[in-house]
């Protein structure tokens, strides 16, 4: 056997050419000369029949000179019948062989499918391409051709299925990605373009999505820890984009709150937040989701500064308390821990006569946080 690609001799039983490495074609591909050969054989058979018939007629005309005219005619008819039967049997065998080769030839099914598709015989084309798939289901060409036909028939769902099947066989096929994008754009299903782009690593294929998928948004600050409250903005590079966000880590595409460019995200409850944001362009295609983990911390007020400090005093003395901005100081003289129900500090306080323990705290009314307790011991007796 000769290799169909390089002409080298292939040993019996080998599946690949030892010279060029190409697979051996065990089932011959479609040959347009097969049909011509078959037609010629049938025509020759018919001509032979006519020739024999003419001989028979000639023999009949000479019956008067024949010694055994009736026997000769009978023999001639038998011979003619045998020849006709043999010709028909051979023709049938050859036709069956060629038909079998065609039915088992991937290239023949593809060629006939393409011819049928060009002639708009879509149902026949579908049958040919499906037979091609049954012969070799690992080649993507019949799936792509079927997708084209179903798209022409406006069966867009099946067209999409055919292209995704092709993509499962060749995950980096530029042609399949291009056809899917055009199909989604044609049917208005542009949101599927963003999903299709997920996981694409080929740089050439990535460029197909450039005009469809917007750039991810950004946040106005890189800070992740905020004291008291969070304030930040979402920024996009295209004013036509629409922005959405969530504060609880949920998908902003499905659960997002719309964010306008003049808005500001403000959070003043202590805790941790996973902020996610996304933009949608004018085509309805979403960008990748960006996220930012933030936390709000609430600091406690500083311990108040009291002057003078602990000591024994013989003259009337006033105690001054320095209060942090935005806070209120409260005090007691009996050693009990002050609360916001205790005596508020407003002006210097006279040390009462006797032995007393002064306790002071500062409370931030914006968050209810209180400082640690300041304690001092005073002894005052007038002399």
Main structural class: alpha+beta
Distinct helical segment count:
10
CATH class designation of the largest domain: Mainly Alpha
Report the strand count.
17
Instruction: Report the C-alpha radius of gyration, rounded.
Output: 48 Å
CATH-derived architecture of the largest domain: Alpha Horseshoe
User: What is the helix/strand order?
Assistant: HHHHHHHHHEEEEEHEEEEEEEEEEEE
What is the mean predicted local confidence, pLDDT? Answer: 84
CATH topology value of the largest domain: Serine Threonine Protein Phosphatase 5, Tetratricopeptide repeat
What strand order characterises the main sheet? 2-9-8-5-6
| Main sheet record | 5 strands, mixed
**Count of separate structural domains:** 5
Strand coverage percent: 15-25%
State the low-pLDDT regions, or none. Answer: 27-33, 62-68
CATH level-four homologous superfamily name of the largest domain: Tetratricopeptide repeat domain
What do you see in this structure?
With 383 residues, this protein is α+β, with helices and mostly antiparallel strands. It has five domains: 1-25; 32-103; 121-209, Tetratricopeptide repeat domain (Serine Threonine Protein Phosphatase 5, Tetratricopeptide repeat); 218-297, Immunoglobulin-like; 305-380, Sandwich (Immunoglobulin-like). It is 38% helix and 20% strand. The chain has a five-stranded mixed sheet. It has a five-stranded mixed sheet with strand order 11-17-16-13-14, with no helix packed on it. Strands 10-12-15 form a three-stranded antiparallel sheet, with no helix packed on it. Helix 3 runs antiparallel to helix 4 and helix 6 (156-169) runs antiparallel to helix 7 (174-187). The radius of gyration is 48 Å and the shape is rod-shaped. Residues 27-33 and 62-68 have low confidence and may be disordered.
């Amino acid at each position: 056997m000769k290799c169909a690609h390089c002409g080298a001799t292939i040993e019996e039983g080998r599946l690949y050419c030892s010279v060029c490495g190409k697979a051996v074609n065990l089932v011959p591909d479609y040959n347009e000369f097969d049909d011509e050969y078959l037609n010629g054989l049938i025509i020759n058979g018919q001509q032979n029949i006519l020739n024999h018939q003419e001989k028979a007629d000639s023999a009949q005309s000479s019956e008067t000179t024949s010694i055994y005219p009736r026997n000769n005619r009978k023999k001639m008819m038998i011979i003619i019948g045998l020849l006709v039967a043999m010709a028909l049997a051979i023709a049938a065998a050859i036709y069956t062989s060629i038909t079998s080769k065609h039915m088992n030839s991937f290239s023949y099914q593809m060629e006939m499918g393409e011819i049928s598709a060009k002639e708009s015989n879509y149902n026949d084309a579908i049958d040919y391409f499906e037979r091609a798939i049954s012969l070799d289901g690992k080649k993507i060409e019949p799936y792509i051709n079927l997708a084209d036909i179903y798209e022409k028939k406006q069966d867009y769902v099946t067209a999409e299925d055919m292209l995704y099947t092709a993509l499962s066989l060749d995950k980096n096929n530029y042609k399949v990605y291009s056809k899917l994008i055009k199909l989604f754009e044609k049917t208005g299903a542009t949101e599927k373009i963003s999903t299709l782009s997920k996981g694409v690593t080929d740089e050439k294929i990535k460029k197909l999505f450039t005009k469809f998928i917007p750039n991810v948004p950004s946040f106005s600050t890189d800070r992740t820890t905020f004291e008291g409250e969070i304030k930040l903005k979402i920024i996009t590079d295209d004013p036509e984009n629409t922005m959405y966000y969530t504060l609880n880590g949920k998908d902003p595409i499905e659960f997002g709150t719309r964010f306008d460019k003049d808005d500001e995200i403000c959070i003043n409850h202590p805790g941790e937040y996973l902020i996610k944001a996304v933009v949608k362009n004018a085509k309805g295609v979403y960008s990748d989701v960006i996220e930012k983990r933030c936390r709000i911390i609430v600091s406690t007020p500083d311990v108040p500064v009291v002057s003078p400090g602990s000591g024994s005093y013989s003259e009337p003395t006033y105690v001054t308390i320095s209060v942090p901005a935005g806070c209120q100081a409260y005090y007691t003289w009996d050693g009990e821990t002050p609360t916001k129900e205790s005596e508020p500090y407003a002006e210097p306080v006279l040390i009462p006569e006797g032995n007393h323990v002064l306790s002071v705290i500062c409370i931030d009314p914006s968050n209810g946080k209180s400082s640690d307790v300041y304690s001092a011991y005073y002894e005052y007796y007038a002399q």
